[in-house]
Design a protein that fits this description.
By secondary structure, the protein is mainly alpha-helical. The chain contains 13 helices and three strands. It folds into two domains: 87 residues, DNA polymerase, domain 1 (Orthogonal Bundle); 172 residues, Intergrase catalytic core (hpI Integrase, Chain A). Helices cover 57% and strands 4% of the residues. Strands 1-2-3 form a three-stranded antiparallel β-sheet.
Length: 300
């Protein structure tokens, strides 16, 4: 069970990472430890493995805390601690999916992220690199928007996953399912500019496609920071951007420009087309406009 030594050990590693890498205060670490331990104890009581918990598991836990009289601030803090721990587990490959990613403090899943406009994407991407890391960042951003990949898929990519001859990338998604995704010309050029820099940065025995300034594999948190920095430079609202927004924008823009929904389904790695329909719901506006203009019985 997740209340076992394995879960406690992973929590200790997470707290140590927060202390050393993030410089969190001891009081914050103690609060996070209490919150996650309380959650692990609850999982043990309801006979649930926290490592394989689902969103509904966490939603039930939060609902119980509210039912027991916990204040909104207490629930928010607990959710923040649990989200951070699960994110750490995902980055370390201990879990394959993050059950906390879409859960809010109100116990409901977040709505669809709002895609940014094609014009905003161009402003974000069309900034000339000034140094080596800028070339790396450009390749990352082009990759996110070109492939519509999950951020976990990006950070797990190895150099051997890229086929420059066929202009394809092999992505490993949920459940270790692999798919081949085309690479557009912009991302191919960005990758080719970045690869000589990658060689200079690379640590021995490191195979990651995208590496940090120390030559190690980039993390999801590292990608978020790079997006935030570029948003400030480009003048695009940083609060509207994340790796997931690029994925949503890629799909929405493709549908708006006439792509078949089954092609988008394959691109995103969705097992069911119904998932793609929900995920790209913003494009319903385009569908409605086209229907109104074309169907003889759609208007008076």
């Amino acid at each position: 069970m997740a209340g076992s030594a394995a879960a406690r050990e992973s929590l200790d590693s997470y707290l140590q990472w927060l202390l050393i890498e993030k410089g969190r205060a001891l009081a914050t670490l103690e609060a996070y430890q209490r919150d996650v331990v309380h959650y692990l104890d609850w999982c043990a009581q309801v006979d649930t493995d926290a490592f394989s918990a689902r969103e509904k598991t966490l939603e039930k836990y939060l609902a119980e805390q509210r039912g027991h009289g916990s204040s909104p601030a207490t629930v928010n803090r607990a959710l923040s601690a649990i989200k951070g721990w699960y994110g750490f587990l995902l980055d370390d490959g201990i879990i394959l999916a993050d059950p906390a990613q879409s859960v809010t403090s109100h116990g409901r899943r977040k709505g669809l992220p709002k895609p940014i406009t094609e014009e905003a994407v161009s402003r974000f991407l069309d900034i000339a690199p000034e140094d080596d890391l800028d070339y790396r960042d450009q390749a990352i951003f082009e990759f996110l928007y070109s492939t519509g990949c999950r951020v976990s898929e990006l950070v797990s990519c190895d150099i051997s996953d890229v086929d420059f001859d066929e202009e394809l990338i092999r992505l490993t998604g949920k459940g270790s399912k692999q798919r081949l995704v085309p690479l557009g010309r912009h991302v191919v050029r960005a990758l080719q500019s970045y690869l000589p820099i990658r060689v200079r940065l690379l640590k021995p025995d490191q195979y990651a496609l995208f590496v940090n300034s120390r030559g190690g594999r980039l993390t999801r948190q590292g990608i978020d920071l790079l997006i935030h920095r570029r948003a400030l430079r480009s003048g695009v609202d940083a609060s509207s951007l994340s790796a997931h927004v690029f994925r949503h924008s890629c799909a929405t823009h493709m549908l708006a420009n006439g792509a078949d929904i089954r092609v988008v389904q394959e691109l995103l790695g969705h097992a069911s087309i119904s998932t793609t329909q929900v995920y790209t719901g913003v494009s319903i506006r385009t569908l409605r406009d086209t229907y109104t203009a074309a169907h003889p019985r759609a208007h008076s």
